[in-house]
Amino acid sequence: MREAAILVATLELLGEVGYDRLTMDAVAARARSSKATIYRRWSGKPELVVSAVKRYAAAPAPEPAESGDLRQDLLAVLLAMRSSLTGQDAALILELMLAMRRDAELAAVVRSQVVAVKSEAFGDVIARAVARGELPSTVDHALFVEISSAMLFARLFVSGEPLDDAYLRRLIDDVLFPLLRQSGLQ
Length: 186
What we know:
Strand content: under 5%
Helix content: over 70%
Shape: elongated
Structural class: mainly alpha
Largest sheet: none
């Protein structure tokens, strides 16, 4: 119970004041805990933030059921990603991205814990499509994941345009399908 309060307080403060100004004193005050309690579990701020991210911000979305159709499976993954992105506080996500540029340890953990989870979801969909013969085995999975994520982030954080179902369908039909088919031809 105490751990959960500390991790939630960490994420709240991260979104409010940023990584650089986040202090163990502030976390302790927000969580109504002592600094000694925090330091018994985490050796410092990077470890605490990483734990909070792993526990709350990096929670994998439930894997969508296989439909047997690549388009439907991609849409299911994109819907889950959209739900995850829009359900999290935008300030937290942006602060993590900025902090990752300044803290290599934080960046490595966020990439391995958060980005890898998203990549696995797409990887499973692509692997099933390859097994069904919908895609060739030479498809460029890494490029696909990078472009998919970038498009969602750009829509949500840069353009501010709606990340609605119509956009997700257009993304699949006009960008992702052609990318998958083209990258599989090499």
